[in-house]
Specification:
With 158 residues, this protein is mainly alpha-helical. 64% of the residues lie in helices and 0% in strands. It has one domain: Up-down Bundle (AhpD-like). It is built from nine helices and no strands.
Length: 158
């Protein structure tokens, strides 16, 4: 069954959310982290459209293929530095949202690698991707269906 196109049925809301996402993505504090965070949150949320999209973005933006494959196993992988690990840990805790909130030890560990402004920007990135994931899971757009519109066909993945 085909589900609704939320951009078509709520264009003002979808466009405003897209503008928010663009503003977040432009933040220089997120350089090198955006793909890791968006792929990991999308994996955790089971959003096929977003995993597909962000893997292609990672390739276009020069991320190493092996690192993309290792995002799912970042806890055990030697391919990520401490700052990237902190970003991935923050992504997981905010995506899974434990019942009692973010534990102090996690917050303190993450704060060792990010200034307050950087942590705020990273958190907004996680908020943004989790929202897109929920739209993707709810309405199930076909992975790859927007590749041409977003320039993702340049990734050479199909």
């Amino acid at each position: 069954m085909s589900r609704l196109n939320y951009f078509q049925h709520a264009p003002e809301l979808a466009n405003q959310y897209a503008l928010f996402n663009e503003a977040v993505a432009k933040n220089k504090a997120l350089h090198g982290l955006k793909e890791l965070v968006t792929i990991r949150a999308s994996q955790l949320n089971g959003c096929a459209f977003c995993v597909d999209m962000h893997v292609k973005e990672a390739k276009i933006n020069g991320e190493r293929e092996l690192r993309v494959h290792h995002i799912a196993i970042w806890h055990e992988s030697p391919l990520f530095d401490e700052r990237e690990r902190a970003a991935l840990e923050w992504t997981e805790i905010l995506t899974r949202l434990p019942g009692r909130g973010v534990p102090d030890d996690v917050y303190e560990r993450v704060c060792q690698h990010f200034s307050e402004a950087e942590l705020a920007a990273l958190t907004f990135l996680i908020v943004a991707i989790n929202g897109w994931n929920r739209l993707g899971v709810a309405f199930q757009p076909t992975p790859g269906s927007a590749d041409k519109a977003y320039g993702l066909d340049k990734a050479g993945l199909s």
